[in-house]
Amino acid sequence: MDYDPSGEKWQLFAAVENETLILLKSIKESARKSEGVFQKIAHGLVGNVFNDEGCDCSIDLRDTRAVGIRIARLNKSFGDNHVLKDVDLEIRAGETFSIIGPSGTGKSVLLKLIVKLEVPDSGEIFIDEIPVFGGSVKTEERDYRYSMVFQSSALFNSLTVGENVGLWLREKRVCKETRIREIIREKLAMVGLQDTEKLKTSELSGGMKKRVAIARSLAMNPDLILYDEPTAELDPINSDDLANTIIKVKETTHNTTVIVTHDLNFALYVSDRIGMLHEGRIIETGTPAEIKASTNPVVRSFIYTTTKGIKG
Fold first, then answer.
1. Which end of the chain, N or C, is less surrounded by CB atoms within 10 Å?
2. Architecture category of domain 8-308 in CATH
3. What is the pTM (predicted TM-score) of this model?
4. How far apart are alpha carbons 53 and 176 in whole angstroms?
């Protein structure tokens, strides 16, 4: 992550904690037309729906749509460190948008602001023109679901692959057990991990863990899915496999995808558009071809050093 106050154990703890917060926030904000039920679900007060002979799920998980994101004059500081400076950015509904830049430029902080894990000092984020931080907006107006795939994958080692993927559905009692098992199989198949439900996470490679984390995020059929440094700690072969997985998932789900990465080649391969963050500001956006042809000296320097390794 770009903002990393300590070591590996802290990162894992923070990632798991952040994942839990995102799941709780997401289920509360997907409460359109069912606010009373969802308030109870969010607090674990609804009875078990597994034996309900009505619908299989208390949420229509097939009802997925892409959302647009507009960021306006966003600022965020940590002490004296002004991380984000008047960030303006528009991400179109349904596109795969990558935010690139060197480590420490605020990319992951921006991602956390989109999912309300951080609060800006000033500025606003609009999702489908509804303000994320606007105090007067009612919960039911934010009728989208979102999930995030963390850099560390944030899998629970005590659970099997299938239990990790089905965690949100079971904890929130969203579906009957039969339907949960079907969803687990469906999502694992989407990421190329058929018949792995019973494996322990300790039996997985780094690339497989990333794909399990993606399958877990897909379990709620999010309208918006965010990836924080998805290729971190992966070799080039696993990075290519993950890129193809993300492209396949996008073709199947048609949601909005936002990726934070310092891996330029990965971003150029998977993205519809790319934005470069430098010294806390978005300095350029464009298609992969437009980014590669940029005349901005900062962008050109980043492209050269990340593709050649040595600046001439």
1. C
2. 3-Layer(aba) Sandwich (3.40)
3. 0.78
4. 9
